[in-house]
Amino acid sequence: MSEIIKTKALVVRATRWQESSKIVTFFTETEGLVKLIVRGALRNKSPLAGKLETLSEVCVVFYRKDTRSLQLLKELDMTEPHHKLRTDYGRYPFALAILELISAVLEDGHKDAVFFNFVMEMISAVEKSARPAGVLIFFMLKLTSYLGFKAEFTQCHGGKHPACLKEHNIFSLNEGKRVCTECYRQGGLMERFDRDELIYLQNLQKSHYRRIHSSEYHHREWKPIIGKLLRYINLQMETHIALRSLEMIL
Ligand SMILES: [Zn+2]
User: Which one of 2.40.50.140, 1.10.8.60, 1.20.120.140, 3.40.190.150 gives the CATH number of domain 1-81?
Assistant: First the structure.
């Protein structure tokens, strides 16, 4: 017996499968990450042509059988192709990086409609914002909270408060906390953050996701910040996410 599921979804990636078909990974509103076989997707005159591009927002109907790891697509309707975003190389890599993070950290079967809608909001913020790198950094901060290891940048956790330094703080990747160089004791994996970076990250953490596309907070050196947050996520999740999509602009 298979069940018919209808849900909003985002195309994560598509790979060729057999003669004329594709296997497409969708991030769905009701089922989390799902891999669907799309029969005939590569045939000439396929009604699906152009609808399976990464980042397309679609509505999918599929047959689900719990005994299979690959499910079968029944119908697909495009709701938002994101043409502009996909051809804007100053923005596209940041949207891809969001997808790369989701597909690496979410487990199969993890369902959360609220998180799905948050991700859709982030993709649209990358499309609209004058600072798409900032949207990705905001997303990474929120992702660490969502996954249960929120990074703490507000104050030094070293305990020697009267002596605490405001400059040159160290962030413990193991603990997810900031320690000033006065309180710092050797041990564990660390990253250095300067004062501007810490202020920027604190401001982003306090921002509302629906307003992040018009946020005035800005840090010119976004690459090292993304690198440090990525090492934090990789250590906490025991993953090796490389964010290859960003290599296009690095
Ligand atoms: Zn301190």
Answer: 2.40.50.140
